[in-house]
């Protein structure tokens, strides 16, 4: 089973991604941060999360999955948000699912398409 990790914030993301990328394939899901009820403020993220989790069941054991909370809605909507501007991420939307270190990336409603998510996870 794929190893799963979760972080919040850019610095935590960057440190964990650097660590996990050394161990094998790394898949990253960027999502709006969760509220006190444990739900993301982003409705598309709420829909995509269980689909991504289900598709992860087919991923190789040597892979890692990193769930990244990008911050609250106001932080994310700022055009200068570090997740939007950093060369490592250059996010346009949440959710965004990517294979780290490759051009493979799904954004918004594509993250809720089991067929596309499964294809992204294929080696």
From TrEMBL:
Subcellular location: Cytoplasm
Protein's UniProt keywords contain Zinc-finger: no
Keywords for the protein's UniProt record, in alphabetical order: Cytoplasm, Disulfide bond, Redox-active center
Occurrences of domain Thioredoxin (ranges): 7-123
Official protein name in the record: Thioredoxin domain-containing protein 17
Stated family: Belongs to the thioredoxin family.
Organism: Acartia pacifica (Copepod)
Pfam families: TXD17-like_Trx
GO CC terms, sorted: cytosol
InterPro entries noted in UniProt: Thioredoxin-like_sf (IPR036249), TXNDC17-like (IPR045108), TXNDC17_dom (IPR010357)
GO molecular function, one term: protein-disulfide reductase [NAD(P)H] activity
Domain of life: Eukaryota
